[in-house]
């Protein structure tokens, strides 16, 4: 299964990234990060069902810190 | 009441602000950034929207660098106490509020010193030179008000910032009295930290303020605690804004502030400024003609003023004038020292204080006429009493 989740350190960065992706016509959804993916820490992620690599590139090229990526089948 | 105490807090607040606060209290109001349910996410969306709008208003590229604080004082304390360490030196202007002076006095016990640069009203060259003269090899931070909360004098912050940048000194601006009224654009400035109240020219409710970080150097956090992020880590996160926002935030207040900032964005700062300056000039002209009224500044003008007017009536205490305005004319003003003893010392009013009149976007020409007539009558009546 391919990656579809981008994990962030804060809800603010997740929302900033979601808005940035939307400007680039990539849809994503804000979700709580599943606890097993986040070293038992709280946090928020973006679920990106399509254009994942492009989305990651846009976020990183805008200087937004990404904590990790993952593949999930249910949220 | 006829409200001229907008320097303390603006009143009334726009309807949109009151509506936004009410919605936060009655419609969604869950704890933001803590949960994944719809109400919590809605709360987080409102917080983010406020950061985004504040970033637009002040020309910040990064909404995450907009930090919510309780007020401008908390923002200033965060910068002052989070940047200065033992052996450091700071420079402030002679027009600073106690929100700047008192934290620095408190830090003296930690062997942190500060010097005061004399602001010379209407002479930017001399003011800048006075700042330069105070710099030492250990000067780390300059804190400067954008505009005096007592006399409305604007300082040349762009040039003071450039001087700081050239000397490798961090620059913090107190925009409590100017944000929303005077234009501030961080994208083309040398301001590292911008502190402001949310409840004055931004038309939000009391209990809101902003610290905007425009520097790679960030202050230590004043308080530490739960942020809703990185919870297994026992250390305070370094990520912005979480580093400075421990504990449950003032969501209804921030919702109101968001509506207030949108109100300012829609009206546009330059239009607000021109309209308020026009009213301040109208008031100044009338007070200038009134008998026995002492004014302390020149006529407010674009390059050097925000719409704040301080005055006194000869032989009448400022607090007495404020009481008569309240009791007999239903007019609200503030009198006394306005928490800025250095500014009063500069203008020779440390023993008398001043009566301060500040307009807002809701002030009308009729309000100004009524106010000036009231002051004129008080002045005449007091003169007659003295004569008797």
TrEMBL record, chain A:
Stored Pfam families: Se_S_carrier
Domain Putative Se/S carrier protein-like residues, every copy: 5-68
Protein name: DUF3343 domain-containing protein
């Amino acid at each position: 299964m391919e990656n579809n989740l981008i994990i962030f350190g804060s809800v603010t960065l997740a929302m900033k990234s979601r808005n940035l992706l939307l400007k680039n016509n990539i849809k994503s959804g804000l979700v709580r990060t599943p606890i097993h993916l986040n070293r038992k820490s709280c946090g928020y992620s973006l679920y990106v069902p399509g254009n994942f690599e492009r989305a990651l590139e846009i976020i990183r090229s805008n200087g937004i810190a990404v904590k990790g990526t993952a593949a999930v089948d249910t949220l | 009441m006829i409200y001229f105490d907008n320097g303390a807090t603006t009143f009334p607040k726009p309807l949109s602000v009151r509506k936004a606060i009410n919605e936060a209290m009655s419609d969604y109001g869950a704890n933001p950034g803590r949960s994944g349910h719809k109400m919590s996410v809605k709360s987080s969306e409102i917080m983010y929207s406020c950061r985004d709008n504040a970033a637009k208003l002040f020309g910040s590229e990064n909404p995450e660098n907009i930090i919510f604080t309780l007020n401008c004082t908390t923002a200033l304390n965060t910068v002052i106490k989070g940047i200065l360490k033992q052996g450091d030196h700071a420079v402030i202007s002679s027009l600073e509020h106690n929100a700047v002076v008192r934290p620095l006095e408190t830090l003296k016990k930690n062997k942190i010193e500060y010097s005061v640069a004399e602001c010379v009203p209407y002479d930017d060259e001399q003011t800048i030179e006075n700042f330069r003269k105070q710099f030492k090899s250990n000067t780390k931070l300059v804190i400067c008000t954008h505009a005096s909360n007592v006399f409305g004098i604007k300082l040349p912050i762009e040039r003071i910032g450039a001087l700081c940048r050239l000397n490798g000194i961090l620059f913090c601006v107190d925009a409590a009295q100017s944000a929303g009224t005077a234009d501030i654009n961080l994208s083309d400035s040398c301001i590292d930290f911008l502190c402001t109240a949310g409840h004055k020219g931004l038309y939000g409710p009391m209990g809101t303020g902003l610290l905007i970080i425009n520097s790679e150097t960030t202050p230590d956090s004043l308080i530490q605690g739960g942020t809703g992020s990185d919870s297994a880590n026992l250390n305070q996160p370094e990520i912005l804004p979480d580093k400075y926002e421990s504990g449950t935030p003032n969501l209804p207040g921030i919702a109101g502030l968001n509506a207030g900032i949108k109100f300012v964005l829609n009206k546009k700062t330059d239009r607000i400024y021109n309209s308020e300056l026009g009213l301040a000039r109208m008031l100044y002209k009338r007070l200038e003609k009134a008998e026995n009224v002492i004014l302390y500044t020149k006529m407010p003008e674009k390059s050097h003023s925000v719409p704040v007017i301080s005055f006194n009536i000869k032989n009448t205490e400022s607090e007495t004038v404020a009481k008569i305005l309240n009791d007999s004319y239903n007019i609200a003003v503030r009198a006394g020292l306005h928490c800025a003893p250095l500014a009063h010392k500069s203008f020779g009013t440390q023993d008398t204080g001043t009566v301060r009149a500040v307009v807002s976007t809701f002030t009308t020409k009729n309000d100004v006429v009524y106010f000036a007539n009231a002051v004129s009558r008080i002045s005449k009546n007091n003169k007659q009493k003295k004569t008797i």
